[in-house]
Design goal:
By secondary structure, this protein is an alpha/beta fold. The protein folds into two domains: 2-46 and 334-363, Urease, subunit C, domain 1, CATH 2.30.40; 49-326, Metal-dependent hydrolases (TIM Barrel, Alpha-Beta Barrel), CATH 3.20.20.140. The chain is built from ten helices and 21 strands. The chain has helices at 68-80, 95-108, 143-153, 169-177, 191-200, 221-228, 245-255, 297-307, 312-319, 321-326; strands at 2-4, 8-11, 16-25, 28-34, 43-47, 49-54, 56-57, 60-61, 83-91, 115-121, 157-162, 181-184, 204-205, 234-237, 259-262, 277-279, 282-284, 290-293, 344-347, 353-358, 361-363. Strands 1, 2, 3, 4, 5, 19, 20 and 21 form an eight-stranded mixed beta sheet that branches. A six-stranded parallel beta sheet has the order 6-9-10-11-12-13. Helix 1 (68-80) crosses helix 2 (95-108), helix 3 runs parallel beside helix 4 and helix 5 (191-200) crosses helix 6 (221-228). It is globular. The relative contact order is 0.16.
């Protein structure tokens, strides 16, 4: 089908341009035609959001109800909010819960829409920087355990957060050799330890500034290691609760294309070890510990523009192209360009969501 958009601008992955039409064939963009005609264009078409760390949506916390039904509900809810690709995240838990989540994800992969796989945030963390994670479940990995875990996962485990200073190098190397994105997080690593992990091949960092060694003028910590490294990326939670907006502002100036947005969103839950309670616009554990956010990816983009002085072009990239690049999906997602999957959103001039299209099909929200 060919759609005409003579009152729209569009974001092609690099810049915002005036759009004339989109031709979509078999769920992909076949041709994207811009125009040189100048006019007042209030609506904007952007790529769908990609969230690499989210625990639940639609009233379902995946680890509390690890079923195909839960993942389907989460998928549908996120699609209606503009997230056209995501990794379902599982916090530090028992082996039984991890296995149940992995089994459900494998079964769900036969019918998956926008779920791209799993992100295991733990249990191989540093208890000193556990945050809201349950300390009794945190442990050091063995190589045999990692081999068995990936074998059982059969390809659905796409990303893993670990504390490299408490893991053997052979564990990290095995994960990398088997195409798992390794993220440094919930870690007390020194600047030197974090830099060594990035040099080894650890690609990214989980929720920058949260649950990690801080910046200190005599102990630079993990954030400084990220800033100084040429390749290390970092996710950030742009809700103003997990990280102050001014800190997000200067971090983006330093990291540029190496920083991307996540929601780290949870949903209310009164069962199991992670009983999240909504307190204002954030979630906390029963003891008051800050846990997940109540963010959507769209609100994260708005916050970047409104509160962090981040250009809209950069905020869009942080929510789509950069995470797609990290997980190797940037040849099919994150741009509105010929050959890319036709996942796109229409926003009004206030950046409110008007329409969602996924694989060329309109999603009713």
């Amino acid at each position: 089908m060919t759609q005409t958009f003579d009152i729209y601008n569009y974001f092609d992955g690099d810049a915002i341009k005036p759009l004339q039409n989109l031709e979509i064939v078999n769920g992909k963009f076949k041709t994207v035609t811009e125009t040189s005609i100048a006019s007042e264009r209030e609506n904007l078409i952007i790529p769908g959001f990609i969230d690499l760390q989210i625990y639940g949506a639609g009233g379902r916390l995946f680890s509390a109800d690890p079923t195909v039904e839960s993942l389907t509900i989460i998928e549908d809810d996120l699609l209606k909010k503009g997230t056209t690709g995501f990794l379902a995240c599982i916090a530090t838990n028992t082996p039984e819960v991890f296995n149940a989540c992995i089994s459900a994800a494998k079964d769900h992969s036969k019918i998956t829409r926008n779920c791209l796989g799993l992100h295991l945030e733990g249990p191989f963390l540093n208890a000193k920087r556990r945050g809201a994670h349950i300390s009794e479940f945190i442990r050091k990995a063995t190589l045999d355990e990692i081999k068995a875990l990936l074998d059982f996962g059969d390809g659905v485990i796409k990303m893993m957060t670990i504390a490299p200073e408490v893991q053997d190098e052979e564990v990290i190397q095995y994960l990398l050799e088997n195409n798992v994105i390794v993220s440094l997080g919930h870690s007390d690593a020194t600047f030197k330890q974090a830099t060594a992990a990035y040099d080894l091949g650890v690609q990214t960092t989980t929720h920058l500034f949260n649950a990690m060694s801080p910046i200190h003028h005599r102990e630079p910590g993990i954030p400084t290691a990220v800033f100084n490294h040429e390749k290390a990326m970092a996710s950030i939670i742009a809700d103003g609760n997990h990280v102050d907006f001014e800190v997000i502002k200067f971090s983006q100036k330093l990291l540029k294309e190496r920083m991307f947005l996540i929601t780290d969103a949870v949903t209310e839950c009164s069962t199991g070890p992670y009983q999240h309670r909504l307190l204002g616009d954030k979630f906390v554990m029963p003891d008051g510990t800050l846990s997940g956010s109540s963010l959507t990816m769209l609100q994260a983009v708005k916050n970047c523009v409104s509160h962090c002085d981040i250009d809209l072009v950069d905020a869009i990239k942080m929510s789509s192209l950069y995470p797609a690049r990290l997980i190797g999906e940037d040849k099919i997602k994150g741009k509105i360009e010929s050959g890319y999957q036709a996942d796109f959103l229409i926003l009004d001039k206030e950046l409110n969501l008007k329409e969602i299209t996924f694989k060329g099909e309109l999603i009713h929200n």
